[in-house]
Specification:
Keywords: Membrane, Transmembrane, Transmembrane helix. Pfam families: DUF1206. It comes from Micromonospora maritima. This is DUF1206 domain-containing protein. By secondary structure, the chain is mainly α. 79% of the residues lie in helices and 0% in strands. The protein has 10 helices and no strands. Helix 3 runs antiparallel to helix 4. The radius of gyration is 19 Å and the shape is globular. The two termini are 27 Å apart.
């Protein structure tokens, strides 16, 4: 069994070392960063009184689709996201620790989810991921087992949000970067971008998870709209505009951080 595991890790390592996969993965980080920058732009527009579009990744992609050459850009982002997902799947077989394997599996699933959202936008579908989440939750909340499922999903999402914030505050993200290759000024800038970006993203996901739990508790599927619901909740606060602007700045920082990963991430 151990020899089989060793052979599997060896095969995964050889596949992951493919130069084309590395190039596509690094390009994927650029697209991932652009997606977060556009998401921040969507949040900022809403904060400043713009139309209440979907405040999630699908809303950001729709913003791209409405621009010249938008379809080509979304197509490139989708290819990069798929490459990132393949890279993370290979990491599952390369890692020895169970926690690292679980993290790679989660990242791979998320990248594929975003890629699928991009494909839907390319096909001209206007339905948002927030609407899909709400409709799914509405069906699940009709049964006790479904309520438990929605509540469990919310707790997991909130836990992910807390973990992302911890990663940002403690700068754990640096272990995945070639920090030694950075100039001192670049290292400080990347550290600040990562700290602000991960913390803001973690806060948004934690709020989204809590709202999933509230949706299950109160039989209210409108609360189960993911990031869209979380940002709507912030907007309803007395200082909603400023809270949304702070979150927009945080996602801008994360987007810029993701772009730097294209060069410095250990792939």
């Amino acid at each position: 069994m151990s020899s089989l595991s060793a052979r599997t890790r060896g095969a995964a390592s050889r596949a992951a070392d493919n130069s084309w996969l590395e190039r596509l993965t690094r390009a994927g980080f650029v697209g991932y960063g652009i997606l977060h920058l556009l998401f921040a732009y969507v949040i900022m527009k809403v904060a400043l009184g713009g139309p209440a579009a979907d405040r999630d990744q699908s809303g950001a992609m729709q913003q791209i689709a409405d621009e010249p050459f938008g379809a080509a850009l979304i197509g490139a982002i989708v290819v990069g996201l798929v490459a990132m997902a393949v890279w993370q799947v290979l990491e599952i077989f390369r890692e020895r620790r169970l926690t690292e394997r679980a993290a790679s599996a989660g990242r791979a699933a998320f990248y594929l989810y975003l890629a699928f959202s991009g494909v839907k936008v390319l096909r001209g579908k206007k339905s948002s991921s927030a609407d899909t989440q709400q409709d799914t939750a509405a069906g699940l909340l009709a049964s006790d087992a479904g309520r438990v499922a929605v509540m469990t999903a919310g707790l997991i999402l909130a836990g992910i949000g807390v973990w992302l914030a911890i990663v940002g505050i403690t700068r754990r993200f640096e272990k995945h970067l070639h920090v030694s290759r950075m100039a001192a000024a670049t290292r400080r800038l990347v550290a600040r971008l990562g700290t602000v970006g991960f913390t803001a993203k973690g806060l948004a996901y934690a709020i989204a998870g809590i709202l999933f739990v509230v949706a299950a508790w109160r039989y209210d599927p409108e609360k189960a709209r993911g990031l869209d619901a979380a940002l709507r909740a912030l907007a309803d606060e007395s200082y909603g505009t400023w809270l949304l602007l702070v979150v927009a700045v945080g996602f801008t920082a994360y987007g810029l951080f993701a772009v730097t990963e294209a060069r410095y991430r250990k792939v």
